[in-house]
């Protein structure tokens, strides 16, 4: 009470002064009072002193301390940069590289934003067609994979090429392409007018996580299948990017790229081969003498955009493993 009263008097007396001198005036009397009550029992805690003593005599402990503080700082920085969100979601920064010959191929910023929105919806399980997931697959649906995407840059470059191959030329400046932006830290997406592989038109292709950080690391998509507005039906709902980014995050084709193959995920029923178009549910395949209803509505099948609307929990685990701080694509968590 005495301290408060004194403070109030000083405050009244000094009210015409600026706040700096006011606080200076306030500090001295308070210190004096502290000194006069030095023998009062005050709160004390010895943790830091005890720690310092222990650190002095134990090198292993010192090393653990340094690592602890470094990890803490790293985590705080990741939060600050928005790369690892408060709920543990990793927000992958995306660079879109557009190589265009025609105006239509020079996809608009709005269409790029639309594509990022599709990726975010599909990878968080908030896509509006998630309600079409059959009851039998609802229990193994991934829901939120805890991966999101954020556009950080768009690079545009005119080209005279009408068609590109899967030989990564679009990623080489010497071939008229655009070099990847820091592929360890950014998901690079290249958009080209048209792509072919072995004489056939393809929608896109991706590198798997063993290529993390290499010059050719990323996803290539042909412009007609990128985004939604102005895209080419039936691949005009942005699902080509969802599928290719699935590969980029270590997901295989759901049929395991072989007859009755293995996609390394246990909750996706073994199926004979790829499905196309809009299959009607249920669709049964027999592999190894066992008949199963297959998950053709999975993003990693080949069905039309409107017919794919889920990842499985097993696929989520693979994605999570890759973007974990110990994973092949942990660089995506850091700038
Ligand atoms: Zn694929």
Automatic annotation (TrEMBL):
Chain coiled-coil ranges: 51-78
PROSITE patterns the record matches: PROKAR_LIPOPROTEIN
Domain Peptidase M43 pregnancy-associated plasma-A: 183-323
Annotated GO MF terms: metal ion binding; metallopeptidase activity
One Pfam assignment: Peptidase_M43
Record GO biological process: proteolysis
Entries under InterPro entries matching the protein: MetalloPept_cat_dom_sf, Peptidase_M43
Record keywords: Coiled coil, Disulfide bond, Hydrolase, Metal-binding, Metalloprotease, Protease, Signal, Zinc
Signal peptide: 1-19
Family per similarity comment: Belongs to the peptidase M43B family.
Protein name: Pregnancy-associated plasma protein-A
Source organism of this protein record: Chryseobacterium oleae
């Amino acid at each position: 009470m005495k301290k408060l009263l004194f403070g109030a008097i000083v405050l009244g007396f000094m009210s015409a002064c600026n706040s700096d001198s006011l606080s200076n005036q306030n500090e001295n009397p308070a210190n004096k009072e502290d000194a006069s009550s030095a023998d009062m029992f005050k709160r004390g805690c010895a943790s830091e002193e005890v720690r310092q003593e222990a650190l002095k005599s134990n090198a292993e402990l010192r090393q653990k301390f340094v690592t602890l503080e470094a990890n803490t700082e790293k985590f705080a920085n990741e939060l600050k940069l928005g790369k690892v969100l408060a709920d543990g979601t990793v927000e992958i920064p995306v660079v879109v590289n557009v190589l265009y010959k025609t105006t239509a191929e020079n996809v608009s910023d709005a269409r790029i934003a639309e594509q990022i929105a599709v990726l975010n919806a599909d990878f968080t399980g908030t896509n509006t067609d998630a309600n079409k997931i059959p009851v039998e697959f609802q229990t193994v649906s991934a829901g939120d994979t805890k991966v999101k995407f954020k556009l950080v840059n768009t690079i545009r470059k005119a080209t005279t090429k009408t068609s590109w191959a899967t030989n990564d030329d679009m990623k080489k400046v010497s071939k008229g392409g655009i070099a990847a932006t820091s592929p360890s830290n950014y998901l690079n997406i290249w958009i080209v007018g048209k792509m072919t592989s072995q004489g056939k038109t393809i929608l896109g292709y991706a590198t798997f996580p063993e290529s993390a950080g290499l010059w050719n690391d990323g996803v290539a998509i042909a412009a007609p299948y990128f985004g939604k507005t102005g895209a080419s039906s039936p691949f005009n709902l942005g699902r080509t990017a969802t599928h290719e980014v699935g590969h980029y995050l270590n997901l295989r084709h759901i049929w395991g790229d072989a007859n009755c193959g293995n996609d390394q995920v246990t909750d996706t029923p073994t199926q004979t081969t790829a499905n196309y178009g809009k299959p009607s549910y249920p669709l049964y395949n027999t592999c190894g003498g066992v008949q199963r209803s297959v998950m053709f509505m999975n993003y990693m099948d080949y069905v039309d955009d409107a017919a794919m609307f889920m990842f499985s929990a097993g696929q989520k685990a693979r994605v999570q493993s890759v973007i974990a701080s110990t994973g092949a694509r942990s660089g995506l968590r850091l700038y």
